[in-house]
Amino acid sequence: MESIQSKLFKVLFRVVRINKMWKLTGNKLKKHIDKKQLSDNYEPSKKIQSRYNICKKQINGNCYYVMKPLKVTGEKHILYLHGGGFVYEIMSPHWEFLVKLIDALQCTITVPIYPLAPKHQCQEVFDMIVPIYQEIISATKYEDTIIMGDSAGGGMSLSLAQLLKEKGIPQPGNIILISPTLDMSFSNPKIQELERFDPISAVPALIDIIKWYGGDKDAKHHLISPIFGNLEGLGKISLFIGTHDILYPDTKKLKTMADEKGIALDYYEYPLMIHVWPLFFFPESKKATEEIIEIIRTS
After folding, report:
1. In the chain, what is the straight-line distance between the N-terminal and C-terminal CA atoms, in Å?
2. pLDDT tens digit string along 163-174?
3. pTM surpassing 0.90?
């Protein structure tokens, strides 16, 4: 049964029209994004900075954060790619989610502040995060390394694993995908059936954003839409999805594809949950977060 907190969140999101930006297109969309990016603050809060060992580093003109507990640090290292529709910076719910992981696992988490569309394209993103991953595995066992992301960052996480395989770079022990973007061509007709249930996401803006983000790459290129990439030979994949998310049909399709090819994919489907619900603060969020922690702890 869906919690009252989840139901209230859905009502709140509809009242404030949280998904209205995702219904914009063309110049109106670009102006909105440009204005939002000027005001976005990607830094963790002062409270978080005081409670954890946080180091800000630079690579290829972009910054990234390495977060650790103040005292004892465990062996696990997570490379976390945040969501934001390829155009928004990391936000406070992301940071709050990450510190829950640190508190539970005493792990290290690396957070790239990757370049955003429309000014930047996907190739620039991967040119940044591949060297960061290589730096991580130079000091951490592969089996203790985790690539994780939500929404756009979830799609990037799977694309990154595919790219690592192409480059002959060792895979992480775990790949954890939260409400991932898998097919940015939006060719799945079942997506339209779910738009009325999803109070967060909408398709129109993403169609334009992917043109900017992709650069010279087609929407079905695996660096943009990893469902079209090779799933064989990757690290262990765990996928979390809610059934009130427009990305749900694509995750079901990915699970079917993996099953047909005999590829292990641990699939966590939450009835009635919305996009990236583990980042929120209702009972179903806590349960999903606990499952993610257990996946990492026992791997």
Report:
1. 30
2. 999 999 999 999
3. yes
